[in-house]
Fold:
Amino acid sequence: CALSAFVSVAVPVLSQTTPASTQAPAPQRPAPEPARLPDGKPNWTGFWDLPNGFLETYRGPAGVSGPNRGGGGRAQNVPQTQRPANIPEMKSPYKERYDALLKQAAAGTLPDPGALCLPQGMPGMMGAIYGLEILQTPKIIAISSEFKAGTRRIWMDEKTHPPADELDETFVGHSIGRWEGDVLVVDTVGIRTDVAFGGRPPLPHSSKMRLTERFRQT
Structure:
């Protein structure tokens, strides 16, 4: 999951108008360096808006203006009634579970976790259409979504996850991170089996599901 998926930065080109015969190449401003923590690692503390999210559309007394991008995830809210071609073949019992969900979608009886006000959990919350706030220290990175107030913590001072018999499954799981240069690599386990992700119907998964994310700033 790249920070470049949350924000894009335009680098302006500075130029000075001179006669065509003496015009020199326009100097370019270097790309901005990320803020850094005392240990030299990138510091992404702040609020990040997802491109095409609700915050890119103005809603005020004059009405709605700007690109009609609000609700970037609405297309996923339309249930699939046939198995998408990009989903790999599943093994039992997940194949049977997914086939049953497809039948529910075709019959119009597929439940909507969003309508039940359940947290998005991981990895769905990382595509939050209202934006994410990152609070970062050398030992912990906290990420909060304004949508349904979901929060996760990435432990930077832990090398391994707790043993399976001591790990409480949650909507966001247990995350540990490490740096590879300026790239943050995050490993997450312990996600509840009822966390829905991957569109509608959601992809069934076991308690052994493992997520790997890579964050970088472009």
Confidence is low (pLDDT under 50) at residues 4-20, 68-75. The first helix runs from residue 94 to 107. Residues 55 and 130 are 6 Å apart (CA to CA).
